[in-house]
Amino acid sequence: APPGAVPGYREPPCDDPETETVAMAAVKYLNENLLQGYKQILNQIDKVKVWPRRPFGEVYELEIDTLETTCHVLDPTPLENCSVRQLAEHAVEGDCDVHVLKQDGQLTVMHANCHSTPDSAEDVLKICPHCPLLASLNDTRVTHAAEAALAAFNAKNNGSYFKLVEVSRAQLVPLPVSTYVEFAVAATSCAAKDVADPASCQLLAEKQYGFCKATLTEKLGGEEVAVTCTVFPSQVADANPADPAAAVQAAPSAAPPAAMAVGPIV
Amino acid sequence: KPNAAAAGGAAGPMVRPCPGRVRHFKI
Prior knowledge:
The complex is a heterodimer of chains A (266) and B (27). Helix content of chain A is 15%, strand content 40%. Chain A has three helices and nine strands, in the order H-E-E-E-E-H-H-E-E-E-E-E. In chain A, strands 1-2-3-4-9 form a five-stranded antiparallel beta sheet. A four-stranded antiparallel beta sheet of chain A has the order 5-6-7-8. The termini of chain B are far apart.
């Protein structure tokens, strides 16, 4: 371009079907590449610029707001069936900048950068004065609750020994004094009933993940734990889920692999 | 005051193209 020349861009409306298709492709890409936490759902398109790209195609520069759903990223439930995390549960918002190339009708995410922010304590307490707020995942009460809950689950489990993958969310409840945790787990090669050395248990080649919700209640002279885990069907190995050049098709997803067609086990 | 039509301005209500609609709720 000659010096001083600024290449032009166009600004379609944020709610234009074309813009929405690109934003949905970006959210799909985000969810396929998230390594932890919860699946994100599109909430609002903030800005859009469409730049011409040489020799062919266009680049969509989008700013989008997302909201956390209740589906963990390891949960194979389609995003359409996931609920948005409600304000009373202490919602979390994502602010994302994305660049999407449209060429020959195909959408490819070239860049995506998101920052997540929980709703303010003030806003949560305004709509629900007694609701527990999100707690730090490093809090010792949180890590203890997750470890105790997983131990309780493994003790009652006749199948594989499950290891903790991540604590994804936690709340400290004042009355009764308790800790609510949600965490992801993965099956290992060991049987839960006869684990001598948990450190030697390896994750299965065909990864099998689960997602648990637990409450650890402090009682006089001890504690009580209630835990429910959903174990997802084994997942076939993904070629390269973190490949930034991976193409995101605007068309609906293909049918899930056969290994994922089975329902979860609770 | 300049006439909006004479200046090439639209006579109808202004459409704000962005940001788009909120699908769930704002936090």
